[in-house]
């Protein structure tokens, strides 16, 4: 079979422990849902990541970048081709006011690392459940801050595996979008410029934002985070709440009673349950308010063959 050949080719450059066949993706997504990946690759170096991207490009094999699985719903039929996860590229390097973080580092960890060096500007990210790569791709933001406020440049791989550096302007960052998603780039690292701050003030802000997040978000259940983008002039969670949808859902998936913008995996939900709940929410909000909710999460993979 093709995937056996892909495996053999990939382990010429990667440690076999970092290349797996038929890996269950529910082990790697924050929703704890999803079928298997034909091939699952976790490179340990930028060169290994580049080799994987180049190999998939040359062989015309579908390639999906998983990030840390926080903003993605993987269908129950899994993913054909290669799934790339850069969790082992997770170094954080601080030099004065500049910070370089590799793609697989969790942005929460980067936020805490810079805070401990008395640098201010990334406090807003102390509760964002994503990797640097995902944060760059989505121009992640929270509590009045966004990646575009602090980014200097980012090193990425093109779809053919060429390494290029994109300046802040090149990145074309907007509300939950960037050139990265538009062109299908793979983030390797990002460089930020922060400002010296006062330790007590930084710590107080992080404590406050952490409290706000923990008290308002259903972190006790698996989820894909905030499901919908903010519609112009509205808040998605408020529209869903006002539609009386909290506690409603399909199978083991449910609109959170704690925060209506979240759909949780309450009881062994399948991806089909989760996606059906998303569609139900969109339909009801459209009917009640004539607002078309747009997904912030990405839905990938194959449906189960019936």
UniProtKB/TrEMBL annotation:
High-level lineage: Bacteria, Bacillati, Bacillota, Bacilli, Bacillales
EC number(s) stated in the UniProt entry for this protein: 1.3.1.98
EC top class, as a word: oxidoreductase
Cofactor requirement: FAD
UniProt organism field: Psychrobacillus soli
GO biological process, one term: cell wall organization
GO molecular function, one term: FAD binding
Protein task: Cell wall formation.
HAMAP family linked: MurB
Keyword line: Cell cycle, Cell division, Cell shape, Cell wall biogenesis/degradation, Cytoplasm, FAD, Flavoprotein, NADP, Oxidoreductase, Peptidoglycan synthesis
Record protein name field: UDP-N-acetylenolpyruvoylglucosamine reductase
Active-site positions on this chain: 176, 226 (proton donor), 296
């Amino acid at each position: 079979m093709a995937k056996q050949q892909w495996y053999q080719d990939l382990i010429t450059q990667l440690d076999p422990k970092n290349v797996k066949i038929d890996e269950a993706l529910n082990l790697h997504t924050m929703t704890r849902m999803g079928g298997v990946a034909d091939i699952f690759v976790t490179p340990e170096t930028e060169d290994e990541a580049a080799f994987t991207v180049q190999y998939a490009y040359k062989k015309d094999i579908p390639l999906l970048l998983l990030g840390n699985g926080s903003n993605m719903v993987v269908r129950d039929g899994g993913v054909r081709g290669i799934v790339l996860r850069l969790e082992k590229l997770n170094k954080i390097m601080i030099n004065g006011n500049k910070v370089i973080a590799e793609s697989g580092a969790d942005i929460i960890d980067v936020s805490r690392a810079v805070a401990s060096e008395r640098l201010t500007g990334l406090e807003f990210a102390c509760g964002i459940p994503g990797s640097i790569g995902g944060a760059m791709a989505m121009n992640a933001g929270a509590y009045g801050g966004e990646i575009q406020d602090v980014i200097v440049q980012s090193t990425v791989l093109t779809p053919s595996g060429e390494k290029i550096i994109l300046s802040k302007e090149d990145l074309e960052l907007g509300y939950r979008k960037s050139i990265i998603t538009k062109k299908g780039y793979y983030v390797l690292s990002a460089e930020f410029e922060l400002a010296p701050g006062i330790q007590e003030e930084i710590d107080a802000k992080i404590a406050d934002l952490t409290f706000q997040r923990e008290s308002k978000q259903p972190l006790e259940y698996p989820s894909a985070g905030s499901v919908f983008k903010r519609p112009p002039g509205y808040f998605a969670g408020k529209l869903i709440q006002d539609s009386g949808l909290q506690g409603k859902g399909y199978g083991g998936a449910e609109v959170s009673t704690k925060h209506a913008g979240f759909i949780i995996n309450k009881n062994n939900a399948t991806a089909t349950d989760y996606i059906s709940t998303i569609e139900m929410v969109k339909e009801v909000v459209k009917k009640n308010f004539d607002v078309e909710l747009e997904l912030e999460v990405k839905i990938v993979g194959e449906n189960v063959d019936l």
